[in-house]
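seq:
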Amino acid sequence: MTKEHWPQETGFNKSVNERPFTILVVDDVSSIRMSTINLLDYIGKLPENTRFIEAEDGQEGLRAYMFENPDVIITDREMPNKNGFEMVEDIRCIQHNNIDGKTPLILMQSAISNVEKKEYLARAEQAGVDKAYVKMEEGIYQDMIEHISNHYKKQRTMDNNNTVEASHGIDGISDPET
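struct:
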């Protein structure tokens, strides 16, 4: 079952026409999902209109991706029904011909040995993950916020450029209707 959260502190009005910045958090452990959401919200630096959506496993995460079109996905690696790697691969397959670009995918893994970490990072890159972290390593949430904030800024710049281009018509020729 997917859940939706609007951080209390933002006071964001959902009736405003601006599309919210949506982060999908996928993990089979509800306390990890909530901790991730709470830490990201606590650290701050997220857009004021950030909305969080939760999914309990990779299959549900894939459905949420298809119906919610999140801006960023944060997923666990080990989950029932469909693990994080499988979900990422399915999403990248769907996005293969997508002209709007690829949704940033962040993968998190429980504590592992250095040897396992090398294998995990190589597998994450092969699957199409943008950032891979080991849970509870120092500084991962600050780094994650930085990655998400950079994506948000880039996305908003592209949205603004598309709006300007649309208002000027092709090759700077204004639409007579405007």
